[in-house]
Amino acid sequence: SACSCFRAFCRNPEYAARFLNEFQDKAILGTDIFSRNPARAEEERANVQRLVESVVEGRPDEEAFGRVYWHEGLMPQLPYLQALRDRGHLTDAAYHKIAGGNAARLLGLG
Predict the structure, then answer these.
(1) What's the pLDDT at 88?
(2) Which range, of 16-20, 56-60, 97-101, averages the lowest pLDDT?
(3) Whether the predicted model's global pTM rises above the 0.85 cut
(4) How far apart are CA 72 and CA 44, in angstroms?
(5) Residue 84 Cα to chain centre, angstroms
């Protein structure tokens, strides 16, 4: 809630990857953000990219955290999961389960 889990994962990406791989059948990515401000779309993408890159490189950028519009912007959690997957820290299967597969299974959609 309120990005606290995301911040905890950002402090220790190695732990985050271990946790997510271990609990890949139980974890579900969720959000209450369903829209963003189109006027800030490019700025927001750049801020999220900067934040995610700093985190997966092991040096979380607090300034980047402050630039992400948490309640009206893009959700950095998904790009973070994608970055962990793309760098081989999160299996492809775990990524797909967390990003939607587990929710679909629980809702009987697949």
Answers:
(1) 94
(2) 56-60
(3) no
(4) 10
(5) 9
